[in-house]
Specification:
With about 180 residues, the protein is mainly beta. The protein is built from two helices and eleven strands. The longest helix has 6 residues.
Protein backbone atom coordinates (compact mmCIF):
# COMPACT_ATOMS: atom_id res chain seq x y z
CA UNK A 1 0.00 0.00 0.00
CA UNK A 2 1.53 3.30 -1.12
CA UNK A 3 4.89 1.50 -1.36
CA UNK A 4 4.66 -0.31 2.02
CA UNK A 5 4.15 -4.12 1.80
CA UNK A 6 1.02 -5.37 3.56
CA UNK A 7 -1.20 -8.43 3.35
CA UNK A 8 -4.70 -8.04 1.93
CA UNK A 9 -7.52 -10.41 1.01
CA UNK A 10 -9.13 -9.20 -2.21
CA UNK A 11 -12.50 -10.26 -3.60
CA UNK A 12 -14.89 -8.94 -6.21
CA UNK A 13 -17.56 -6.55 -5.03
CA UNK A 14 -21.24 -7.31 -5.43
CA UNK A 15 -22.41 -4.39 -7.55
CA UNK A 16 -24.76 -6.37 -9.76
CA UNK A 17 -24.39 -6.89 -13.45
CA UNK A 18 -23.09 -3.48 -14.59
CA UNK A 19 -19.73 -3.23 -16.31
CA UNK A 20 -18.49 -1.19 -13.36
CA UNK A 21 -19.52 -3.91 -10.93
CA UNK A 22 -18.04 -6.77 -12.94
CA UNK A 23 -14.70 -5.20 -13.72
CA UNK A 24 -13.90 -2.47 -11.20
CA UNK A 25 -15.60 -3.03 -7.85
CA UNK A 26 -13.51 -4.91 -5.25
CA UNK A 27 -13.46 -5.53 -1.52
CA UNK A 28 -10.22 -5.60 0.48
CA UNK A 29 -9.79 -6.91 3.99
CA UNK A 30 -6.71 -5.72 5.89
CA UNK A 31 -5.40 -6.66 9.34
CA UNK A 32 -6.20 -4.46 12.35
CA UNK A 33 -2.55 -3.27 12.35
CA UNK A 34 -2.71 -2.11 8.74
CA UNK A 35 -2.10 1.55 7.97
CA UNK A 36 -4.65 1.51 5.11
CA UNK A 37 -6.80 4.65 4.78
CA UNK A 38 -9.42 6.02 2.37
CA UNK A 39 -7.64 7.33 -0.71
CA UNK A 40 -4.68 4.93 -0.43
CA UNK A 41 -3.21 3.31 -3.54
CA UNK A 42 -3.05 -0.49 -3.28
CA UNK A 43 -0.69 -2.27 -5.67
CA UNK A 44 -0.82 -6.02 -6.32
CA UNK A 45 -0.66 -7.41 -9.85
CA UNK A 46 -3.22 -4.64 -10.43
CA UNK A 47 -3.69 -1.24 -8.81
CA UNK A 48 -6.65 -0.13 -6.67
CA UNK A 49 -7.86 3.03 -4.95
CA UNK A 50 -9.44 2.74 -1.50
CA UNK A 51 -12.87 4.43 -1.71
CA UNK A 52 -14.24 3.52 1.72
CA UNK A 53 -13.13 1.90 4.95
CA UNK A 54 -14.96 0.47 7.93
CA UNK A 55 -13.80 -1.58 10.88
CA UNK A 56 -15.34 -5.05 11.36
CA UNK A 57 -16.28 -6.48 14.79
CA UNK A 58 -12.94 -8.39 14.61
CA UNK A 59 -11.19 -4.98 14.16
CA UNK A 60 -10.17 -5.89 10.58
CA UNK A 61 -10.21 -3.02 8.11
CA UNK A 62 -12.83 -3.72 5.44
CA UNK A 63 -12.37 -1.51 2.37
CA UNK A 64 -14.32 -0.74 -0.77
CA UNK A 65 -11.82 -0.55 -3.65
CA UNK A 66 -11.99 0.48 -7.28
CA UNK A 67 -9.56 -1.07 -9.77
CA UNK A 68 -7.72 1.65 -11.66
CA UNK A 69 -7.88 1.51 -15.44
CA UNK A 70 -6.01 4.53 -16.77
CA UNK A 71 -2.78 6.49 -16.52
CA UNK A 72 -3.31 10.18 -17.30
CA UNK A 73 -1.37 13.42 -17.56
CA UNK A 74 -2.50 16.73 -15.96
CA UNK A 75 -1.68 20.00 -17.69
CA UNK A 76 -2.04 23.63 -16.63
CA UNK A 77 -2.16 26.75 -18.81
CA UNK A 78 0.88 28.79 -17.84
CA UNK A 79 3.58 31.18 -18.96
CA UNK A 80 7.31 30.45 -18.79
CA UNK A 81 9.69 33.15 -17.55
CA UNK A 82 13.44 33.74 -17.78
CA UNK A 83 15.75 34.45 -14.81
CA UNK A 84 14.66 38.14 -14.85
CA UNK A 85 10.95 37.27 -14.76
CA UNK A 86 10.41 38.27 -18.39
CA UNK A 87 7.83 36.14 -20.24
CA UNK A 88 9.25 33.66 -22.74
CA UNK A 89 7.00 32.80 -25.69
CA UNK A 90 3.24 32.43 -25.51
CA UNK A 91 1.17 30.96 -22.72
CA UNK A 92 0.56 27.26 -23.28
CA UNK A 93 -0.38 24.09 -21.43
CA UNK A 94 2.49 22.68 -19.40
CA UNK A 95 2.50 19.18 -17.92
CA UNK A 96 2.35 19.36 -14.12
CA UNK A 97 1.71 15.68 -13.36
CA UNK A 98 2.49 12.56 -15.40
CA UNK A 99 1.78 8.91 -14.77
CA UNK A 100 -1.28 9.67 -12.63
CA UNK A 101 -3.08 6.43 -11.75
CA UNK A 102 -6.84 6.85 -11.97
CA UNK A 103 -10.17 5.17 -12.45
CA UNK A 104 -11.75 6.70 -15.57
CA UNK A 105 -15.36 6.17 -16.52
CA UNK A 106 -17.06 7.20 -19.76
CA UNK A 107 -20.34 8.98 -19.05
CA UNK A 108 -23.35 7.16 -20.45
CA UNK A 109 -27.08 7.80 -20.12
CA UNK A 110 -27.18 5.09 -17.43
CA UNK A 111 -24.45 6.83 -15.43
CA UNK A 112 -26.34 10.13 -15.73
CA UNK A 113 -29.40 8.42 -14.19
CA UNK A 114 -27.32 7.01 -11.33
CA UNK A 115 -25.41 10.26 -10.66
CA UNK A 116 -27.63 13.34 -11.01
CA UNK A 117 -24.68 15.58 -10.02
CA UNK A 118 -23.03 15.18 -13.41
CA UNK A 119 -22.77 18.32 -15.50
CA UNK A 120 -24.49 18.21 -18.92
CA UNK A 121 -21.11 18.63 -20.67
CA UNK A 122 -19.30 15.82 -18.77
CA UNK A 123 -17.73 13.17 -21.02
CA UNK A 124 -15.56 11.29 -18.46
CA UNK A 125 -15.29 11.11 -14.70
CA UNK A 126 -12.05 10.33 -12.88
CA UNK A 127 -11.26 9.18 -9.38
CA UNK A 128 -7.72 9.94 -8.27
CA UNK A 129 -5.68 10.64 -5.18
CA UNK A 130 -5.81 14.05 -3.53
CA UNK A 131 -2.02 14.28 -3.83
CA UNK A 132 -2.47 15.11 -7.54
CA UNK A 133 -2.24 18.87 -8.15
CA UNK A 134 -5.42 19.47 -10.13
CA UNK A 135 -7.29 22.74 -9.69
CA UNK A 136 -11.03 23.25 -9.49
CA UNK A 137 -11.91 25.47 -12.48
CA UNK A 138 -13.55 27.96 -10.09
CA UNK A 139 -10.07 28.61 -8.64
CA UNK A 140 -8.27 29.15 -11.95
CA UNK A 141 -8.40 31.61 -14.85
CA UNK A 142 -7.95 28.76 -17.34
CA UNK A 143 -9.20 25.29 -16.40
CA UNK A 144 -6.62 22.50 -16.14
CA UNK A 145 -6.78 19.77 -18.73
CA UNK A 146 -6.24 16.03 -18.56
CA UNK A 147 -4.70 13.97 -21.35
CA UNK A 148 -6.69 10.74 -21.62
CA UNK A 149 -6.13 8.29 -24.51
CA UNK A 150 -3.88 10.93 -26.09
CA UNK A 151 -6.73 13.48 -26.24
CA UNK A 152 -7.12 16.63 -24.13
CA UNK A 153 -10.17 17.01 -21.89
CA UNK A 154 -11.05 20.12 -19.90
CA UNK A 155 -11.52 19.89 -16.12
CA UNK A 156 -15.07 21.12 -15.40
CA UNK A 157 -15.48 20.15 -11.73
CA UNK A 158 -13.36 18.77 -8.90
CA UNK A 159 -15.35 17.23 -6.03
CA UNK A 160 -13.36 16.72 -2.81
CA UNK A 161 -16.36 15.51 -0.79
CA UNK A 162 -17.84 12.57 -2.74
CA UNK A 163 -15.09 10.09 -1.75
CA UNK A 164 -12.89 10.53 1.35
CA UNK A 165 -9.31 11.46 0.38
CA UNK A 166 -10.06 11.05 -3.34
CA UNK A 167 -10.86 13.59 -6.01
CA UNK A 168 -13.89 13.04 -8.25
CA UNK A 169 -13.15 14.99 -11.43
CA UNK A 170 -15.56 15.72 -14.28
CA UNK A 171 -14.06 16.20 -17.74
CA UNK A 172 -15.53 17.56 -20.97
CA UNK A 173 -14.16 17.74 -24.50
CA UNK A 174 -11.50 20.47 -24.63
CA UNK A 175 -12.41 23.52 -26.70
CA UNK A 176 -8.80 24.72 -27.05
Amino acid sequence: MDGVPEAVILSRGASGSSQFGRESDYIGRFSPESSVFPGALIETEETFLVCSLRTTPDRDKYCGLVKTNMIVKVQRYSQQYDENDNPIGDEEYQTIAEGVVTFAQYVTARLRQDDPGLLPSTTYTLQLQTTVDIKDPQDAIHPDQVILHGKAYQVDAVDVVKYPNLLHVQLSDSVR
